[in-house]
Structure formats: C-alpha cells, structure tokens
Design brief:
With 643 residues, this protein is α+β, with helices and mostly antiparallel strands. Helix 7 packs antiparallel against helix 8. The two termini are 53 Å apart.
Length: 643
Amino acid sequence: MSYLHAPRLVFTGDFLSDVSTVNNDTAHYNNATFQPNFQEPGQGATNGWWNPEGGAVFDFQNCSVRQLFLPDGSTQTSQSEDIIIGQAVVGAEGRPTGKMVDLDPDAQMYSAIWCVQLRICDAKGDLLFKGDINTTSFRDIQMRQTDGGKSNGQPLGATWTSVITNVEWGKVAEQSAFLKTLRATTQSNTLAINMNPFGYYYNHNDGRFSLGRIIGSIGPYFEGEPLTFAPARRLYGINYTPSARGTYFSTSNFLVEPDSKRVSVDFGSSFPVADSIGTISYKQDLRLAVSKVPQTGVASRQTPTFYISPNDFTEIGALDYQSDPNWLNQTGGIVSFNDLPDATISALDNNQLILVTPSTSLPGQYAIIAREAIDGLVARADNFILRLDYGQSVDVDFYTYQWGKPLANTGITATLQPPTPNTPVGPQNPISELYGNNFPVDGLSFNGQVSSNPQGKAQIRLTGNAIYSPRVYIDGQIYSIDYQTANTDPAFGPEQVVVHLRDYFEEIANPVWDDISEMMIQYSNLYPIMSKYVVNLADPLALAEKKNILIFAFSRGMNDTMHMPVTRDLSTAKRNTILNWLNNPQVAPKPVVRAEARETKAVNPVAPGTPLTDRQTRYREAVKAKNGSFPGFSASDDLFENL
C-alpha cells in the first residue's frame, strides 16, 4: 500500500455518512421488548439516538484535489501547473452511492465503507479517472480535536486504507502530466488510497449534521503489498495529554526512501486540530529526528513526558505548519524531507525516528512527542475484519516488517480474548439483558502460532463452527483475537482480528411467513427508513406486493452497490431462506406439528440426562417464551427436541 510514494495527490473536503442509529443499541435487537419510541431521535437506549432514520449512505461532498507531490520531491498546488489540481473528487454517477456500516452493535469501532466509487472530473464534468474502492474498515482511531468535539460531538478520527480497482482513465487524463506519470508508475491498473475521516457531526450544529471532514491521499500500488494498511514504518504518540486523556500524534505512517534520500511522514491522521474542519492552532516547535539511543518509554498520567538530549539525536528538520491555519487541508498533513545527508539516511537503517519539541521546563532538553517502536518492528493483519458462516474458512494474512523491510522467520501468536460477561436488566440497563462476546470458545478454530516466510508474510486460517445464538436475540457472535510477535513493543500492545461469526442455520426451501417473520420484524424495527419510505418489512402482504424490488436487493452480491446493506449481518442460508419466501410468498401460519411426529434429525443432538450449558438453558427458555418460535431459527425445535 504505497500511497506515500510519489507521484501522489492529496484531496480534502467533506464526507456524508447517513448511518442508522437504532441498530447501534444492542437492546433494540430484542423484538419482544422493542418499543415505538426506539425509532425516535433522542439520547439513550429508550430512544433511537441521533439518527434513527439513517440510510447507511456514504458519499464525498465538496472534495477537491489540493496538492500534487512529484517523484523529484517538488509539489504543485496551482491548476496552471496541472489540470487535475482543484478538480472535484466525487462519488458514483448514475448509480446509488456507497454505504457505511458497522460490523455489529458490539463492534462499532470498525465501520466499513462498501461499494464506494471515486471519480475525479474537470469543471465540465469530463472524466480524468475513476475506480472502485475496495471495502475497508476503520483503523488507528485516535484523538484529533483539541476542543473535545464541542460543536460536532465526536472528537476522534480514524483511517481507511484500501486500493482503487477497475481504474478507468478518461480522455482528459492525457492533459495531466501527473496522471500520466501515476499511470506509468502504478501496477495492475490499481491505485493505493488512504483516507482520514474526522470531525463527524452527531449534533445538529453549523449546518453540518451527518457530515465530517476527510483527507485523502492517492498514490501508486505495487504488487504483493497488503490492501488495508501501509507497509510503512510507524510513529506512536507517547506524550500524555490530560485534556485528551491520552496522546495526540497517536499513530503516523512514514516512509524512508534511501535512493531518493527522502523521508515522508503522514500526519494527516494524527495532527491535532482545533475544530471539526481541520483548522490548525497547535503552536509547538515540532522537529523530526533520528534517535542515537534506543527509546522504550511510553507516557502515562504518572510519567507524562519523556525527554532526550540533543546530543542523542540527529535532527532531520522542523515541521513548517504554523504559518497557515489551513495547512492540514492544503497538504493532507504529509511532510516530506528531501535530499537528506547520507549519514541521516544510513542512521535510519536501524534507528528509531522520533518527533520532538524543545522542553519549556527542562532547558536544553527535548520532549519526545512520538517515537518508532523498539527495533522498528511492525506486525499487522491485512484482512482483519471478517464475516464468517458455519463451515466457512478464511486465511488471515499477516505481514511483519523491521525498519520498513519484510522480516522473515518471525513468530506471530494469536489468542482469543476471554469471554465478556452478560449484563442483566437493571437501572443502567433498563430494556433487556445484554449478552457478552467471545463465547462459546469453540465457535472459531485456528492455529494460534505461525511464522513469517522470507517475504515477511504469514497466514492463519480461521474456520467458523456451529454456534446456536449465544446472544439470544442477535444473530451470531463477535470474537476478538489478539495477535502480536514475541518482540512486540509492550508500550503499544497487541492488535486485533475481529470476526462476526453467524449463527448456524439450515436453509428452508419452501418457507412460510413464520419462518422469516422474526428476522423481518427485527429489520423493520432497526431500519425504520425502509418501512416508512419503501416497504413495511414487518408486513408480509406489503412484502409480497414489493417482492420484485426486494428480490433484486437481497440477491445482489455483498460488494454490489445495490446489495441491501443490512443483510450483511445474515448468513447465506438465512438470506437464501428470505429469498425463497419472496419468490413464493406464503403468508399462512406455520402448521403445528406434534413433537413425536417431527423429524428427529438434529444438528447437534444432546443425549437425555446430559447437563445443559448456560447457553442451552437460555436458548430453551427463549424458545418456550416464544411458544416454539425463535428469532430466525426454523431448526430450533428439532435442534433442542432431545433436551
């Protein structure tokens, strides 16, 4: 993922994210306790939070190309230098926009963009180039706004890193020297893209509700590199800031290019901003340097700052940002130092990059704002957010680097996090019992010990096993897997692979309404925009009338822009069962069958007298409470007939 390489362009502007918020609250998934006011705006679980009628839309708004960085280290900022500068960055034309959705109500820190197309056009609307952004999820969430998000309500920012595929170059592209160089440099007709969203508006202030700021960088893609993170070295913030309850400059990618004698650091995702639109009021004298001695500390409330003597580092240069409050929006926060001395480049071969500022309390010393990890180690999973069905296996790709180069023969340990507890109904949880994550522990199978190959790559195969609604009224379970190398810097801890494993379900070839009603009612509850403005998902007669539209939406692939986004929560078997019903709507109730006449075949039969697990007890009680019906499970009676 080479978005830091030249040639690269920077664009900035806004993004629209019209997410639905009813489904952000776990308790709202319980059909038995759902109330109409859960679909109304308002703070708290007894309402639908800040955007209950959201439609999951993601789109670019008011975005334009601001700067070009060329292979010789020069920059261009005027359209007189290249036609692409100042041109609009927009989404798809003639088709629905992209979507933005969470992985799960219990995993809302991994919001993904799906089916997003990016186009750059000139003032006449003629195409320069366009392509499809591969689905990617939030990474490197960190504190951004020094005002605490006072106006917009969300002070954090994040990063989306991906590739742009299916690239089409317009005729106008021939008029851009930059695009001709980019096209000749990149590989596989694919581009690298990094986007840093921040300043999102939960609040109805400033005319920016459901808008956020976005900074994007597009550069060449090189074959064999990861798809969801940059194969770059990284700076980690270690200067504790009480007002931020942590650190600014938390994570920043950087690239060392010995042949070009250049260092490029991306502060676009980490530089602290004064407000939601990226204004810079920060006044520190910030300098990049190479440490001559190993740096191992990380600041905390007890030790908020680490210091270094100027004798112990080699300065690279100062960040020239203070003269322009709009510096971040203009440059994307990427700082490049060219024509560095050979000694500095050589020192970076095996020494840590640091970000420092002159100390105001210890004259002659410098406070360390951020530092590279011990021994320059980076180990990251590529496809780190997964959706799995029963019996499905996926290989997770891991990459290991040291000082920016692939690191072979490095062991990676992956460990399932321990189960989290259930939360009973009480004053702080008034609606419904909430169920924990990471259980049953046998829901996933994987080898927790692997080693990287000569290219620094390793794979762990994850296989989804049968689980039977451990969260009772929410399909599937969330599993978080920690991974790290033996030499991972303890200051920055392990990272995670997060899996939504869907419940076991047998497809029903000829379903009646009772077989899908709980699923459809739940969708109607959680996504009121559909039932209010398209079709009442809880009404079988209305569904039958609009079945052709729904068949089209439910049958699209997950990476199709017309795919019904909420059904990414469903297993293939459940989605197919809904499709089977839509193809032959049967509204009549399901006939009652005596227990002794039922088919005795069970997926996982339990012998008489076998003690029940807590999960099985909860499941049986839920089935009884529903008079034999359970949300989305046609096989529930058969499965637990022998209990």
